[in-house]
């Protein structure tokens, strides 16, 4: 008996797809536009500052040496003879600050990230962040009222002990030669700057060390490494580029610091390494703040020219730092 063919079944009704814009597309476009505009705005501000400095400094850069003779704070020098000691003082005070602050920052960052208990680490982290928010004038007052009396006996001992005399007799004058109280010298200014940049560097390297892959640390410990060996093998190589970034951030703060150096340092316009003698060095930023209120005419242009040189110096330092970091792209601790 033949079986009748069953009628074909009707196709299943498909759900209707509502044609419209992809969800979130408008928000993505708005966010992209705001981000792009913000980046362009930063470039415009940077270019505007550079153009302003160049235009205002141009009369001083092109003026003859004889035109600066009537400017009292330039001491009868031409522009470059006046700027070089300021540039040297800015550089040496910043180097002193980095030499003191970077090792301390690495130690504090490692203690917070790998040694301290969690509660203590959180408290220290908050304390470091608060320390970074203290105004520079407070650090200047602290340097005058507390640090100078504290380091004055130490500087006196360094400049009068037998080792210093032996060095002077056999080598010549050293950095410890000629100390005079109070300790208003470039070494004290460098120590104040070190305390100022310590929170910035510490906060950055702490976050970089915390980003070290856990598997790298566990692998090092599993191979029998001690905690310090694990840090040396896994944490420090991973955070090297971040450490460079943190150091450059601290250097930028030290190069441009004004009030603390102005309050602590007895100024001078010499190029030497007598770190304990007052009246030997001065920084560009502190010099501008000291002389700008009474400056006029070509004197204002000369001060702005020194600011342009500081701007170029800071910009160059950051470019070098980015170049160093880009060469070590395999360590992404700072990215």
Could you please describe the fold and organization of this structure?
With 335 residues, the protein is mainly α. Mean pLDDT is 85; it is low at 331-335. The chain has a single domain (80-327), classed as MetI-like fold, CATH 1.10.3720.10. It has helices at 25-62, 79-115, 118-131, 136-160, 162-170, 186-210, 214-222, 227-238, 240-256, 259-264, 284-291, 298-327. The longest helix has 38 residues, at 25-62.
Task: Outline the secondary-structure elements.
Blueprint: H1 25-62, H2 79-115, H3 118-131, H4 136-160, H5 162-170, H6 186-210, H7 214-222, H8 227-238, H9 240-256, H10 259-264, H11 284-291, H12 298-327
Helix pairs in contact: 1-12, 2-6, 2-9, 2-12, 3-6, 4-6, 6-9, 7-8, 9-12, 11-12
- Give the second-level CATH assignment, the architecture: Orthogonal Bundle
Structural class: mainly alpha
Helix content: 55-70%
**SSE pattern:** HHHHHHHHHHHH
Estimate the strand proportion: under 5%
GO molecular function: phosphate transmembrane transporter activity
Transmembrane segments: 39-59, 79-112, 124-144, 186-205, 254-275, 302-325
Family: Belongs to the binding-protein-dependent transport system permease family. CysTW subfamily.
Domain ABC transmembrane type-1: 87-321
In short:
This protein is an all-alpha fold and 335 residues long.
Which features does this protein show?
disordered C terminus, mainly alpha, MetI-like fold
């Amino acid at each position: 008996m033949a079986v009748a063919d069953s009628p074909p079944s009707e196709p299943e009704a498909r759900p209707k797809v509502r044609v419209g814009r992809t969800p979130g597309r408008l928000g993505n476009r708005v966010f992209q536009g705001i981000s792009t505009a913000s980046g362009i705005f930063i470039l415009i501000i940077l270019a505007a500052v550079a153009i302003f400095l160049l235009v205002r400094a141009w009369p001083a850069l092109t003026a003859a040496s004889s035109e600066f003779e009537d400017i009292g704070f330039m001491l009868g020098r031409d522009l470059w003879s006046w700027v070089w000691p300021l540039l040297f003082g800015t550089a040496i005070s910043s180097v002193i600050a980095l030499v003191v602050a970077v090792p301390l920052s690495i130690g504090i960052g490692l203690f917070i990230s790998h040694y301290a208990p969690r509660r203590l680490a959180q408290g220290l982290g908050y304390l470091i962040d608060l320390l970074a928010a203290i105004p520079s004038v407070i650090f200047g007052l602290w340097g005058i009222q507390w640090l100078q009396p504290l380091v004055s006996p130490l500087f006196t001992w360094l400049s009068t002990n037998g080792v210093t005399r032996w060095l002077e007799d056999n080598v010549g004058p050293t950095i410890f030669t000629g100390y005079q109280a109070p300790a208003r010298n470039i070494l004290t200014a460098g120590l104040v700057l070190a305390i100022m940049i310590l929170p910035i560097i510490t906060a950055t390297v702490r976050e970089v060390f915390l980003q070290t892959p856990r598997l790298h640390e566990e692998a090092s410990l599993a191979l029998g490494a001690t905690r310090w060996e694990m840090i040396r093998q896994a944490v420090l190589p991973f955070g090297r580029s971040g450490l460079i970034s943190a150091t450059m951030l601290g250097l930028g703060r030290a190069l441009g610091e004004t009030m603390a150096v102005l309050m602590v340092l007895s100024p001078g316009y010499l190029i030497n390494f007598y770190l304990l003698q007052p009246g030997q060095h001065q920084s560009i930023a502190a010099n501008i703040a000291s002389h700008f209120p009474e400056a006029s005419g070509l004197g204002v242009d000369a001060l702005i020219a020194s600011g342009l040189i500081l701007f170029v110096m800071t910009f160059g330092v950051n470019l070098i730092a980015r170049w160093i970091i880009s060469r070590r792209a395999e360590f992404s601790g700072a990215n």
